[in-house]
Amino acid sequence: MERNPLVYQMMESHLNDVYYGIKDSKPFMIVESWEEIERFIYELTKEICGEEMVNKYYKNKIKRFYSSNGISGGDLSINGSYPQEILDCFIEQNIIKENMIPNFDNIINMEWGFSDEFSICDYCSSVISRIPDSAFWTPDYFYTPYDDFYCGNCTRLFDFVKKIYIEEVLLNNYNAANTILNENDFINEGYTLYQHNKTKMLNSEELFEELNKKYENIIFDIVEQTPFEIEWRVWIKNSGDYEGEI
Ligand SMILES: [Zn+2]
């Protein structure tokens, strides 16, 4: 179903705290809070059904909304059902089809998620989920101290992002490990493989302090992580090691 122009217009004027990115080649909206959704639903309903009808059905909800407790669920249900008069009004305006629930998802007709789960890559605008989806999950993105966010693909593809990322990992000493770049990236950056291990636990602090006596740049690299075992490598580089760029 195509998005209604009226909905688009209301999105423009009433969804202020949202960001747009791209996920699976489609636009994706990132929302800051339920309050944002509730305000939008309220304003849209007022616009298409009129203030009188909104007051008739949602007086108590609106009261809650304005006392910032919010209309729960981002839809227009009252105790789990929808007033027919409101449904008719939404259907008549072609915002939803018959038998469709007038909730945020169906009304805006686009994929969306909350900002505590999704971020947008500052370079390619890809939407990346930051929520682990399995026990083997490792992050394929990173934040800079300035809150810039880059996806794993851009980090692997673009040299300037790669350099920012490596600096970021180095800055965190033993507290950060690579989860984005692969072997060749490190070799190309002039790093040498120091160690490749599989262990139950990695005491990176101890190893870092030891290696730091001899090497300037030390990067821990998580190859694979399972609930039982961690496969990791250590890459090392001294400034004298790298003669690539002159
Ligand atoms: Zn990207």
The percent range for strand residues is 15-25%
Radius of gyration: 25 Å
Q: Given the C-alpha coordinates, what overall shape results? A: elongated
SSE string: HEEHHHHEEEEEHHEHEHEE
Please give the number of β-strands.
Answer: 11
Chain-averaged pLDDT: 87
Termini separation (Å)? Answer: 57 Å
* Poorly predicted sequence stretches spanning 5 or more consecutive residues: 68-72
User: Order of strands side by side in the largest beta sheet?
Assistant: 8-10-11-9
Write out the distinct hetero groups bound to the structure. zinc ion
The number of domains: 2
Number of helices, counting only DSSP H or I runs of 4 residues or more = 9
What multimeric state do the chains show?
single chain
Q: How much helix is in the residues?
A: 25-40%
Sheet with most strands: 4 strands, mixed
Which structural class do you get from the secondary structure elements? Answer: alpha+beta
Structural account:
The protein has 246 residues and is an alpha+beta fold. It folds into 2 domains: 5-114, no CATH class; 134-237, no CATH class. The protein is 36% helix and 22% strand. The strands form 4 sheets. Strands 8-10-11-9 form a 4-stranded mixed beta sheet. A 3-stranded mixed beta sheet has the order 1-2-3. A two-stranded antiparallel sheet has the order 4-5. Bound molecules: zinc ion. The site of zinc ion has 8 residues, from strand 7 and helix 6.
